[in-house]
Amino acid sequence: DVKVTQSSRYLVKRTGEKVFLECVQDMDHENMFWYRQDPGLGLRLIYFSYDVKMKEKGDIPEGYSVSREKKERFSLILESASTNQTSMYLCASSFRDRDTDTQYFGPGTRLTVL
Amino acid sequence: QKEVEQDPGPLSVPEGAIVSLNCTYSNSAFQYFMWYRQYSRKGPELLMYTYSSGNKEDGRFTAQVDKSSKYISLFIRDSQPSDSATYLCALSSGGYNKLIFGAGTRLAVHP
């Protein structure tokens, strides 16, 4: 059974703080993703990684960075948190299937920036 | 125009009803179609996966893809209160191309 875990379920931070969100998967998946989910907007891709030390920008990378030093771990960093980054953050991972990548999600981190 | 359109609902039905959830899309390159279910305060979980056109059935759930109309559906038979969740469609053109998600439809099944 695929397991994707995220370091916190709920997080409250202040404007300007540096925030680290951690994601770990235990299925030896090559691919990892960070999304944010907002009401009415669905899931929006922030960054993704197809391999260790590799990263690609998604649709909304501004204000975020990522780090992938080990295959099982993918970190999302908010360099200077702002109130408009209050959201649900979801991590996902996938194996490289022959045809497509079926993504498996973690439970999410609900971040509030005050 | 969004690549994927999905009615956000909410959709409220009585227990036992047949539920139809739908997405329309604009990119004819999409070949892989998925439905995810997301319970409140949880991450999405994969429910159904379909390649190209046609139907796929899994218990009370049927996924249908009509590529000519660019329209996908998820049917739930004999709906249960435990089916109350948000359902998201997700589409991909395959390979290294990313998944494109619909905004999700909130479903409430009342006893």
Describe it for me?
The complex is a heterodimer of chains A (114) and B (111). Chain A has no helices and eleven strands. The mean pLDDT of chain A is 92. In chain A, a hairpin with a 6-residue loop joins β5 (42-49) and β6. By secondary structure, chain A is mainly beta. Chain B has 111 residues and is mainly beta. Chain B is built from no helices and eleven strands. In chain B, strands 2, 4, 5, 9, 10 and 11 form a six-stranded mixed beta sheet that branches. In chain B, β6 (54-58) and β7 (61-66) form a beta hairpin. Chain B is globular. The chains are: A mainly beta (114), B mainly beta (111). At the A-B interface, β5 and β10 of A face β4, β5 and β9 of B.
Beta percentage of chain A is: over 45%
- Which structural category fits the helices and strands of chain A? mainly beta
Pattern of helices and strands of chain B: EEEEEEEEEEE
Number of helices of chain B: 0
Q: What share of the residues of chain A lie within helices?
A: under 10%
Oligomer: heterodimer
Primary descriptors:
heterodimer; A: 114 residues; mainly beta; seven-stranded mixed β-sheet; four-stranded antiparallel β-sheet; 11 strands; globular; B: 111 residues; six-stranded mixed β-sheet; five-stranded antiparallel β-sheet
In terms of topology, how is this protein built?
The complex is a heterodimer of chains A (114) and B (111).
Chain A: E1 4-6, E2 10-13, E3 19-25, E4 31-38, E5 42-49, E6 56-57, E7 64-70, E8 73-78, E9 87-94, E10 104-105, E11 109-113
Parallel strand pairs in A: 2-11
Antiparallel strand pairs in A: 1-3, 3-8, 4-5, 4-9, 5-6, 7-8, 9-10, 9-11
Chain B: E1 4-5, E2 11-14, E3 19-25, E4 32-38, E5 45-51, E6 54-58, E7 61-66, E8 71-76, E9 85-92, E10 100-101, E11 105-110
Parallel strand pairs in B: 2-11
Antiparallel strand pairs in B: 1-3, 3-8, 4-5, 4-9, 6-7, 7-8, 9-10, 9-11
